[in-house]
Write a structure and sequence with these properties.
By secondary structure, this protein is an alpha/beta fold. It has two domains: 110 residues, 2-Layer Sandwich (Zincin-like); 107 residues, 2-Layer Sandwich (Zincin-like), CATH 3.30.2010.10. Helices cover 42% and strands 17% of the residues. The strands form three sheets. Strands 1-2-4-3 form a four-stranded mixed beta sheet, covered by helices on one side. The protein is elongated. The model has no long low-confidence stretch (mean pLDDT 87).
Length: 236
């Protein structure tokens, strides 16, 4: 189902983009602008030049962002579109805002409400993710971790081998592991890594998202076949 467009952005936002355009391309004619907010499932933003018109689509999560943040975003989008250097201050300002605790929580809540998670099954052709999860939970976490939704990915992805989606409390494992040749230590390590995300949630430190904290990394290395598993994953 296509995402419905919300009303056109206010005039002051158009003025802001025109100002940034003239700073980036002082001698180029100003193309027509179409700026709208969309009900994205995250802080997505896009800018495209189509048939001579600049189409800007912004997440409605940014609708009430401070002017300084919208100015920074306008600079970033236009600079990237026209392959110009992005000012470090603008990038840092926007990053600090979007990674702030309040905005991060709001974004996570919206993703839970609007987003859909494709769930397949925990029972694969060879490996049962629920059985592996319970085994690891008992061995390394004293059986105290609540079991999230476990599912094999739709495709045998090689780039995204596994991930934990906190918004939907789901661990997804690539189907590339669901085959007879996969050593158990490899799939155990992969699940162990994602389970550590349950124990060590993402934290904000100095305006940055800390996904793999020192505590996370130290505990990860306690996995008995850590080096073997790392080598196997690299071969994939």
């Amino acid at each position: 189902m296509p995402k419905a467009l919300l009303p056109v952005a206010p005039p002051e936002l158009y003025t802001l983009y025109e100002q940034q355009y003239r700073l980036i391309r002082p001698r180029a004619p100003m193309p027509p602008l179409d700026i709208r907010f969309r009900r994205f499932t995250s802080l997505n933003t896009t800018i495209r030049l189509k048939e001579g018109k600049l189409n800007v689509r912004l997440s409605d999560l940014l609708e009430h962002a401070p002017e300084s943040i919208m100015e920074a975003l306008a600079h970033i989008l236009l600079a990237k579109l026209y392959r110009k250097p992005v000012e470090r201050m603008a990038m840092e300002r926007y990053r600090r805002y979007t990674h702030s605790e309040a905005v991060s929580k709001q974004s996570e809540l919206v993703r839970q409400m609007r987003g859909r998670k494709r769930i397949s099954t925990a029972q694969g052709h060879v490996w049962d993710l629920e059985e592996v999860f319970e085994s690891i939970n008992s061995r390394f976490f004293h059986g105290l971790l609540g079991r999230p939704t476990l599912t094999w990915s739709a495709h045998a992805a090689r780039r995204m081998l596994g991930h934990y989606d906190a918004a939907h409390n789901t661990i997804v494992v690539s189907r590339i592991f669901d085959r007879p040749g996969t050593p158990r230590y490899a799939i155990e390590y992969l699940l162990y890594h994602e389970m550590l995300h349950l124990k060590h949630p993402v934290k904000m430190r100095a305006g940055r998202r800390c996904v793999h904290s020192k505590e996370f990394q130290a505990e990860e290395r306690l996995f008995p076949e850590f080096d073997l598993a790392q080598a196997y994953l690299k071969r994939l």
